User: Fold SUMO-activating enzyme subunit 1 from Caenorhabditis angaria.
Amino acid sequence: MVAEASTISKDEAAVYDRQIRLWGIDAQNKLRNSSVLVVGISQLGAEFAKNITLSGLNSLTLLDGHVITKDDVGHNFLLPLTPGEDLIGKNRAEAAYPRTYTLNPNVKLTAIPNDLETELTKNGEDWLGRFSLVALIDQNYDLVVRVNAICRRLGVRFIGASVFGWVGYSFFDFNGHQFLTKVQNKDKEASSTMDLENEQGDENKKAMTMTIEEDQFEPKPYFYPAFEEAFNVDWSQKKLLRKCKRIIPSSYFLVKSILRAQKESRFTGNGEDADLRVLEEIWEEEVKNGNHLKEQQTVQPEKFDHLFNPQLTPTCAVVGGLMGQEAIKALSEGKNPLRNIFIYSALDTTGIMCDFPPQ
Assistant:
């Protein structure tokens, strides 16, 4: 269940004045009544949590069962760097609470030091229904598939995202939720008219008249595919064969290969070299399945060591920024949502929006 509807106070209106001017008081009130769950307070998770907190939510829940490692310290800006304090081994969600709170004290903040599977076992799957949006960040493939299915059943907006070293992706599923859509019927378009003085400024002479057509928008539900469907397109279909080279970016094969390695439990964890060999093998298969040539790919296997931790800060900033943008659109029922997979690669400096499976 989402929070009971309420409107922003005068004090909040002053805090959010700039963004109210940008997207309007109605959109801000919708954000004010939204509750978001962020699972995974990694460096990417911190970027998204920051962006969504500053938007002016009703409540934010940080959930993470992992402890802080050396990859987090100095990179995750939600973790305090107190002289003499050793953060290694502390829970990430609890450690991130103080700085997240200072970003926006108006947001009701909760930190849960557990993994999501533990919470679902304890509270039941319907527990996710209390949130307006659930974001899974840097989580395993199988968990993302499962939680996405739960959110679709409960009608909860969903984002899944990860950053693998220098490359990252975000997946959006706002299935059935409304966005403002431009009215195509010109009969419904409004117009405004204003009189202008002639060039000489002579008010006694006939003034020019300018009519400005104003776009009209109405709420309309949008439909999205599930995570598993979007990342498991059969590119051998006749209708897709000729499109493959045009619509599949090289960076897609990097992301898909890592997701597939997770799905098939192929990463050994026994050493980077073994995982690199697995990744290259899967990548070659995925490139072939996508009707591409491996020698034409912008990122070759000799750079695959850049696809492992630590996460590159600029990649987290780009992916986390777009996640925040689309989350705000979804919660405020705004305009022009992007569908449905964004992939950013700092290896070839590309950021591409893909709509998979192709329409």
